[in-house]
Amino acid sequence: MRGVNAALGVFVAVLFVVSIAVGPTGFAPLGALSDMLSGRDAPMALILVELRLPRALLGVIIGAALGLAGAAMQGLLRNPLAEPGVTGVSATAALGAVLTFYGGYAGATPLALPLAGVVGAASGAILLLAIAGRDATVATLILIGAALNALAGAATALVLGLSPNPYAFYEIGTWLMGSIADRGLDHVALALPCVALGCLPLLLARRGLDALALGEETARGLGVDPRRMTLLVIAGAALAVGGAVAVSGVVGFVGLMAPHAIRPLVRYRPGASLVPSALAGAALVLLADIALRLLPTGRELPLGVMTALLGAPVLWQLAWRARRSGQTPWL
Amino acid sequence: MALIAASLARRLGGHTVLDGIALTLEPGRLCVVIGPNGAGKSTLLRLLAGIDRPDGGGVILGGAALENMAPRERARRIAHLPQTIAAHWPLNGRDMVALGRLPHGARLEAPAAADAMAIATAMSRTDTAAFSDRRIDMLSAGERARLALARVLATEAEVLLADEPVASLDPAQQLAAMDALRAEATRGAIVVVVLHDLALVSRYADRVVVLAGGRIVGDGRPSAALAPDMLERVYGARFEMALIPVAVSDRSRAG
Question: What is the ipTM of this complex?
Answer without folding.
Answer: 0.92
